[in-house]
Amino acid sequence: MKNMMVFISRSLPKIDATLARRASAPKSIKFLLILLSGLLLCFPFAARADTGILVKSAELVLVDETYQLKADFETNFGATIEDALNKGVPLVFVVEFELERPRWYWLDETIASTKSQIKISYHALTKQYHLQTGEQQKTFSSLPELKAELEHIEAWPVVDRGGVKKRNSYEARLRMKLDLSQLPKPLQVSALTSKEWSMESDWHTWVLKP
Questions:
Q1: Residue 115, Cβ neighbours under 10 Å: how many?
Q2: Mean pLDDT of 147-176
Q3: Contact 119, 146 (CB under 8 A)
Q4: Per-residue three-class SS string for the chain
Q5: Which of 32, 51, 59, 185 could disulfide-pair with 78, CB 3.0 to 4.6 Å?
Q6: Contact by Cβ (8 Å): 66, 60
Q7: For a pLDDT cut of 90, what percent of the chain falls above it?
Q8: Neighbours of 208 (CB within 10 A)
Q9: What average pLDDT score do residues 31-57 get?
């Protein structure tokens, strides 16, 4: 009997330690999950969307008496849009720019509001891609070359120098989108309700101080 009591008394600390470890295990896991969540917040990342447009950078450069827009975009066509392009469906992208002067006492003053259309297409007979802006047209032998041109704006005149004053600050906005209304009619209905055809960037804003 005495030996049994000694065995039990010696075993109790071990049992208590085992139970304590088991009880603390969920807390340890919970702590690790909280720590991992904190790290993800400190180093955020986003999965690359199959389709979409991102404004990477934009600035206004004064050349003579005109502010010219310089911008870079990132475009992800996705399989559906790329397949349609390669089958001969022309795509029209619209680049929109706005410049406003904020006014605390009234509605913001619109200084400039302009759009530019960029049409891209593929010709199966020549196996070439075409990009048209206004009356200018360029030809490319591959889709990556075409996209490199589509994603860069070098010198788009958008605002006259006389339209802005040195004592004021202005808010500039820029975005690009695929104009679904210019798709072939049979394709418009399905495209308007499909995420695979959704290509529109958020407004990219920055401050202009002349």
A1: 10
A2: 96
A3: no
A4: CHHHHHHHHHHHHHHHHHHHHHHHHHHHHHHHHHHHHHHHHHCCCCCCCCCEEEEEEEEEEEECCEEEEEEEEEEECHHHHHHHHHCCCCEEEEEEEEEEECCCCCCCEEEEEEEEEEEEEEECCCCEEEEEECCEEEEECCHHHHHHHHCEEEEEEEEEHHHCCCCCCEEEEEEEEECHHHCCHHHHHHHHCCHHHCCECCCEEEEECC
A5: 51
A6: no
A7: 69
A8: 18
A9: 55
Kindly report, residue by residue over 52-72, the tens digit of the pLDDT. Answer: 999 999 999 999 999 999 999
Structure token digits, residue 191:
């495209």
CATH fold, domain 52-208, is Immunoglobulin-like (2.60.40)
Which tokens sit at 169? 């600050």
Q: Is 200 exposed, middle or buried (0-12, 13-18, 19+ CB in 10 A)?
A: middle
Which residues on adjacent β-strands are paired with residue 152?
A: 72
- The tens digit of pLDDT for each residue in 75-105 reads 999 999 999 999 999 999 999 999 999 998 8
Cα–Cα distance, 177 to 5 (Å, whole number): 81
- Count CA atoms closer than 13 A to 137's CA, side-chain side: 9
Q: Which residues contact 92 (CB under 8 A, 6 or more apart)?
A: 117, 118, 119, 178, 179, 182
